[in-house]
Amino acid sequence: MANSYTKADLVDAVAAATDLKKVQAEAALGAALGSIQEALTSGKKVTLVGFGTFSVQHRASRTGRNPQTKAPIEIPASNTVKFKPGKALRDAVN
What we know:
Blueprint: H1 7-18, H2 22-41, E1 46-48, E2 52-59, E3 62-65, E4 72-75, E5 78-85, H3 87-93
Antiparallel strand pairs: 1-2, 2-5, 3-4
Helix pairs in contact: 1-2
């Protein structure tokens, strides 16, 4: 048994839960994920009440070390996605 849940698995679950055809469920899921990505790209925070909040977090540039040579390297600044689970999700997992 696999330890991961893929997009295809999620499409199947949405199709079964909503009586949609798989093609329709895939389109709906794609639209939802695309909307979340678009909002994050434009700097907005996405809150799904009871599930969690997605936000963009900026990481400043910093100096790191190459683990093989121990030589210092410069790690450039970047943005990353942060997810904070909502209370209902935390409670469901625990």
